[in-house]
Amino acid sequence: MPELARRFLRPREGWLGFALLLVMLLSLAWSVERAEWFPQVDFMVALALTGAIAGALLGLTRLSVVLVLPASALLGTAAVLYYVGAAFYPNLAYGMRLILLRGDALDWTRIVLDGGFAP
User: Fold this and answer.
1) Sign of torsion, CA 26 28 29 33?
2) C-alpha 37 chain-centroid distance
3) pLDDT (tens digit, 9 = 90+) per residue, 69-97?
4) What pLDDT score does 15 carry?
5) Nearest residue to 19 (alpha-carbon basis) of 56, 45, 47
6) Between these two residues, 117 and 90, which has the higher pLDDT value?
7) For residue 83, which of 36, 37, 46, 38 has the smallest C-alpha distance?
8) CA distance 98 to 33
9) Which residues, including other chains, have CB under 8 Å from residue 53's CB and lie 6 or more apart?
10) Based on the number of CB atoms within 10 Å of its own CB, is 18 exposed (0-12), middle (13-18) or buried (19 or more)?
11) Helix H or strand E encompassing 29
12) Radius of gyration, CA atoms only, the chain
C-alpha cells in the first residue's frame, strides 16, 4: 500500500478519536439548533462536519504546522462566511453575501462599542 493511502486509511492515531470528535461536534450543533438561540442556525451541522473533515485531512498531511495552522484558519473563516451567508442571504451571489455580512458585522460592532446590546 502506498504511503499516502496508508496515511489516510490507517492514521497513526486511529479513527476512534475522530469518531468521538464527530459525536461531540454534532451533539453541540444539534443542541444549539434545537435551543433556537437565534433564527437561521441550520448551518451548524454542516459547519461542524466541514470543520471536522477539513481538520482531519489537514492533520493527516505531511505539511508543517507552520503551514497547516494558517491554512486551517483561512479555510475555517471561508467556511463560516459561506454557511452563514447562505443561511442569511440565500438568494444572493457569494460576493454580495460577503458585502452584506461585512455591513452586519460593522453595525454590530458600532452597537456594542456604543454600549448597546446587540444579539
Assistant:
1) positive
2) 18
3) 999 999 999 999 999 999 889 999 989 99
4) 82
5) 56
6) 90
7) 46
8) 23
9) none
10) middle
11) helix 16-35
12) 18
- Give the residue extent of every domain in the chain: 3-88, 92-119
Instruction: Look at the pTM and tell me if it is higher than 0.85.
Output: no
Which amino acid belongs to residue 64? S
DSSP secondary structure string, 71-84? HHHHHHHHHHHHHH
Residue 23 identity (one-letter amino acid):
V
pLDDT at 118: 61
Alpha carbons 105 and 75: distance in angstroms, whole number = 19
Residues 112 and 118 sit within 8 Å (Cβ to Cβ): yes
Residues 6+ apart with CB under 8 A from 108: 118
Total Cβ atoms within 10 A of residue 48 = 20
The span from the CA of 40 to the CA of 24, in Å, is 21
Rounded to 5 degrees, φ, ψ at 32 are -65, -40
| 54, 79 contact by CB (below 8 A) | yes
Q: What is the pLDDT of residues 32-64, one digit of tens each?
A: 989 988 778 888 999 999 999 998 888 888 889
